[in-house]
């Protein structure tokens, strides 16, 4: 498994953040910002970063502290995107993926930054956020949303409203529900595998 590395990254303009990343062993296909769950950059997040690197993606997770605001999420993502660009990733090969709280954060980023692709897996709250449906109407990046019906964050009806709102945007979107999965997808291993393949396929299709 590809090793992860954590560093303190500082820009010339003074912006700085802790980043955890993993680099592919061979050719870099593009760059992905990984937005983590409520618990921070856990062993599970490091495994995800390593797994994405094994698929050819230069993957980096900004360490977002506490209960972030929408502005905080966007600022952290911007620094991580700059880190990827510094390492030679072209703008049309940049994407974002988030899980749990990071799923909501990825949707927020997809509505405020023009990237090649974005994926949300589940979603919890980001402090001071507007409603998810309102965010989805403003998407400017191709977005895939993966949600488990057994979770306690969004009901099936709310996910369907999200689907409808996203479909009204001017970019490619898709929303998939899994009846037996929760927001972490650990309640249904089969759904977890299928969601992972959908995530990889979404990036394959849009970051090229």
UniProtKB/TrEMBL annotation:
<dbReference type="GO" id="GO:0008806">
    <property type="term" value="F:carboxymethylenebutenolidase activity"/>
</dbReference>
<protein>
    <submittedName>
        <fullName>Carboxymethylenebutenolidase</fullName>
        <ecNumber>3.1.1.45</ecNumber>
    </submittedName>
</protein>
<dbReference type="InterPro" id="IPR051049">
    <property type="entry name" value="Dienelactone_hydrolase-like"/>
</dbReference>
<keyword id="KW-0378">Hydrolase</keyword>
<dbReference type="InterPro" id="IPR029058">
    <property type="entry name" value="AB_hydrolase_fold"/>
</dbReference>
<dbReference type="Pfam" id="PF01738">
    <property type="entry name" value="DLH"/>
</dbReference>
<dbReference type="InterPro" id="IPR002925">
    <property type="entry name" value="Dienelactn_hydro"/>
</dbReference>
<feature type="domain" description="Dienelactone hydrolase">
    <location>
        <begin position="73"/>
        <end position="206"/>
    </location>
</feature>
């Amino acid at each position: 498994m590809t090793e992860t590395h954590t560093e303190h990254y500082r820009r010339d303009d003074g912006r700085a953040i802790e980043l955890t990343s993993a680099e592919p062993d061979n050719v870099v296909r593009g760059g992905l910002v990984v937005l983590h769950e409520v618990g921070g950059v856990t062993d599970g997040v490091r495994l995800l970063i390593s797994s994405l690197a094994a698929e050819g993606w230069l993957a980096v997770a900004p360490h977002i502290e506490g209960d972030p605001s929408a502005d905080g999420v966007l600022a952290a993502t911007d620094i991580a995107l700059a880190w990827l660009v510094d390492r030679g990733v072209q703008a049309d090969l940049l994407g974002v993926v988030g899980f749990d709280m990071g799923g909501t954060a990825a949707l927020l980023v997809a509505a405020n930054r023009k990237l090649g692709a974005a994926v949300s897996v589940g979603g919890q709250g980001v402090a001071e956020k507007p409603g998810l449906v309102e965010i989805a109407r403003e998407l400017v990046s191709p977005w895939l949303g993966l949600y488990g019906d057994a979770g306690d964050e969004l009901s099936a009806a709310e996910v369907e409203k999200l689907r409808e709102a996203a479909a009204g945007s001017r970019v490619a979107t898709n929303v998939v529900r899994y009846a037996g999965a929760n927001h972490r997808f650990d309640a249904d291993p089969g759904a977890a595998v299928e969601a992972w393949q959908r995530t990889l396929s979404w990036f394959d299709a849009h970051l090229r």
